[in-house]
Design brief:
Blueprint: H1 3-6, H2 26-40, E1 45-49, H3 56-69, E2 73-77, H4 84-95, H5 104-120, E3 125-129, H6 137-146, E4 158-163, H7 165-171, H8 177-181, E5 185-188, H9 194-207, H10 218-228, H11 232-248, H12 256-265, H13 283-286, H14 289-305
Bound molecules: adenosine-5'-triphosphate (ATP) and magnesium ion.
Length: about 325
């Protein structure tokens, strides 16, 4: 409803991980370059970690676009609540490898055979597991076995595990040290600095069709940064609602006061630390409002405990 009022063609602050909107900060660019390099040079096993809502899935979607353009074969697993049998079922199904048997060693043989064929044809095969902080130890152990599929010189299967910081913690556990030793590249996402928040908002508005005068005033962006702590998902939430409220008030430029009111409405000024969901959420749940807010609370409270060095503004 507000789109034509602000001269926009689409919603600029959707919470979907749409890779068209990917804003390349230096960190994101480095992470993307690292993932591309690692896969191209058959490094084998790569991790991508970062706080809740800092763009991992969006980055993965951009990576998938790139891999598809390169004709790589990909298996994207976004439901990390699986057991080891399901892991193999999902991988075979995603790669479209026909296999009647549900016997794990037969599935592994089929996969190995298929990977060798791909390798000989000069093709790359990549498994990407998102929300990998939820993977159980038995599944992580199976993933370790998958990293053993190799020729004498190259890894046959490239594996990317993407997840929240709990993934790194999990991989530090002694029982997972063999897997940890196989990580050849570690890529990261991070919250935005104040300057990046300015550019991020401007870039999303530009992609959504904005051409005229800035829609967000300087103070509005600063207020967004103060309350979001630079976490893009929270930035989107604040900006989306600020646009709606600004439209209701028929103001063409979003003010700091409007953003402030939205932050209060979402109680971003008083979120309490919330324990991690303990593995009960599915990706779909993340976007329903209650767990979405829980997610925000979790991200923000962690950052409040140790604010990023780049956050210099004080809450009013
Ligand atoms: N660099 C970025 N450029 C553009 N949009 C971004 C960027 N980073 C995050 N976003 C936006 O922020 C929102 C959250 O991003 P995303 O879902 O990719 O985060 P995530 O790190 O995967 O979160 P979670 O840990 O909850 O899975 C999305 O709307 C996404 O488009
Ligand atoms: Mg994600």
């Amino acid at each position: 409803m507000y789109k034509s009022f602000f001269g926009l063609k689409e919603n600029p602050f959707n919470v979907n991980p749409d890779p068209r909107f990917l804003f390349l900060t230096q960190q994101i660019e480095e992470a993307l370059a690292g993932l591309m390099y690692g896969i191209q040079t058959r490094k084998g096993f790569i991790t991508l970690t970062g706080e809740v809502g800092t763009g991992k899935t969006t980055l993965i979607n951009r990576l998938l676009d790139w891999l598809h353009r390169k004709n790589a074969r990909t298996a994207f697993l976004f439901n990390s609540r699986m057991n080891s049998n399901q892991l193999f079922d999902f991988i075979l199904a995603e790669f479209e490898i026909p296999c009647e048997s549900r016997n794990k060693s037969q599935q592994l043989m089929k996969l190995n055979h298929w990977l060798l064929e791909r390798y000989r044809a000069g093709e790359t095969a990549v498994v990407i597991i998102d929300e990998a902080q939820n993977l159980t130890y038995p599944v992580l152990e199976e993933i370790r076995l998958l990293t053993n599929l190799e020729t004498s010189t190259d890894k046959l299967l490239q594996i990317v595990l993407s997840g929240q910081p709990e993934l790194e913690e999990k991989l530090k556990l002694p029982q997972l040290r063999q897997l940890r030793q196989r990580i050849t590249l570690r890529c990261k996402t991070a919250p935005l600095t104040t300057e990046q928040t300015f550019d991020y908002i401007a870039e999303r508005l530009r992609i959504a069709g904005a051409t005229g005068e800035p829609i967000f005033g300087k103070e509005a962006v600063e207020t967004v940064h103060v309350y979001s702590l630079g976490i893009p998902r929270v930035v989107n939430l604040l900006c989306e609602h600020a646009l709606v409220n600004s439209y209701v008030e028929q103001k063409r430029v979003v003010t700091g006061k409007i953003v402030e009111d939205v932050a209060r409405e979402f109680q971003l000024d008083e979120v309490e630390p919330i324990a991690p969901a303990g593995g009960q959420q599915t990706p779909a749940d993340v976007y329903n409002s209650e767990s979405f807010l829980q997610n925000l609370g979790e991200a923000l409270s962690r950052f409040r405990a140790s604010p990023p060095a780049t956050t210099t503004l004080k809450r009013k």
